[in-house]
Amino acid sequence: MSKITMDLLKNELNTWVQMKKSMADNVPKGNIVNFGKYMNSKYSFDSKALLDEEDHNVAVLLIMRDHVQEIK
User: Fold this and answer.
1) Residue 71 pLDDT > 80, yes or no?
2) Is 54 part of a structural domain of the chain?
3) What is the mean pLDDT of residues 1-21?
């Protein structure tokens, strides 16, 4: 199972939120892939729960639980 750092997750979330806002402002009928599906694909998390999750806040919690690795 792939692992990422908390800093990387924060960065990815901020980038995704900015992209979502930009799409809403500039492409009224545009559609953006949900955050869970995006992260699942980009980092090969192999998580069915992330693919199906529509709420980006819940997706973040799932990623934190299953895929964030603390660096010591």
Assistant:
1) no
2) yes
3) 94
Q: Cα(68)–Cα(5) distance, rounded to whole angstroms?
A: 5
- Per-residue pLDDT at 43: 96
Domain count, the chain: 1
DSSP letter string over 15-49? HHHHHHHHHHHH-TT-----HHHHHHHHHT---HH
**Letter string b/e over residues 52-63, b meaning 16 or more CB atoms within 10 A of that residue's CB:** ebeebeebbebb
Backbone angle region of 36, left / alpha / beta, with phi > 0 → left and psi within -120 to 50 → alpha:
alpha
pTM: 0.88
Asked if residue 23 is part of any domain, the answer here is: yes
φ, ψ of residue 28 in degrees (nearest 5): -50, -35
